[in-house]
Amino acid sequence: MSTMPAMFPMAQGRNCGKLGDAVCPIPMSYKIPESVLVVIHTPDLQVLLIERADRPGYWQSVTGSLDTPDEPLALTAAREVAEETGLIAAEHELDDWQHTIDYEIYPQWRHRYAPGVTRNTEHWFGLRVAQPRPVTLAPREHLRYQWLPWREAAALCFSTSNAEAVLQLDWRVHQGQRAACGADR
């Protein structure tokens, strides 16, 4: 009996379609411990939150890991927004907040990463949409969504880093308005 390399965990329960094969090994790579967080918001600071399917009651902004180590961060952000909400980032205002944090990965999600990986680097983005709008959730990832005033959204986020990002929204939006008016000179 051969064994799969450790970097390819077995996907259990999938039939290969061959007589006698009960389970087909499917190569699955570990998540890259570098990700984006995208705060989707309106000009009046309504924030979109989505509820995790694997943890009902856990509300968050759009998040996701790089698909490849060299994937541009803005591309990761746009891809995750499309996958998780159906929104097309290019039709709105995607803003790289130039803010990066390093945090400990929650124990319940460490199995998604290579053995020994316990920390993740997260890059923050904002996506401004004109007004609250319906979104199309990925049902395997999220159960529900809601638009909330920014302070309420921050209070509902299960992740402290997500809450911190939402709490920066007011400052980031108004800083941009001041700069556009020349108030920062």
Order of helices and strands: EEEEHEEEHHH
Largest sheet: 4 strands, mixed
What is the CATH first-level class name of the largest domain? Alpha Beta
CATH architecture of the largest domain: Alpha-Beta Complex
Shape descriptor: globular
Tell me the number of strands.
7
Radius of gyration, in Å, reads 19 Å
Main-sheet strand order equals: 4-1-6-5
Spans of at least 5 consecutive residues with low confidence: 1-27
Query: Could you estimate the helical fraction of the residues in percent?
Result: 10-25%
- What's the multimeric state? single chain
Strand content: 25-35%
Mean pLDDT: 85
Binding site for substrate: 31, 52, 63, 159
Keywords: Magnesium, Metal-binding
Protein name: Dihydroneopterin triphosphate pyrophosphatase
Binding site for Mg(2+): 80, 84, 141
Give short descriptive properties of this protein.
disordered N terminus; Nucleoside Triphosphate Pyrophosphohydrolase; 185 residues; 4 helices; alpha+beta; dihydroneopterin triphosphate pyrophosphohydrolase activity; three-stranded antiparallel beta sheet
Protein described:
With 185 residues, the chain is α+β, with helices and mostly antiparallel strands. The protein has two domains: 1-30, no CATH class; 34-181, Nucleoside Triphosphate Pyrophosphohydrolase (Alpha-Beta Complex), CATH 3.90.79. The chain has four helices and seven strands, in the order ββββαβββααα. The strands form two sheets. Strands 4-1-6-5 form a four-stranded mixed sheet, with helices on both faces. A hairpin with a 6-residue loop joins strand 2 and strand 3. Helix 2 runs antiparallel to helix 3. The longest helix has 13 residues, at 73-85. It is globular and about 45 Å long. The chain starts with 33 loop residues before the first strand and ends with a helix. Mean pLDDT is 85; it is low at 1-27.
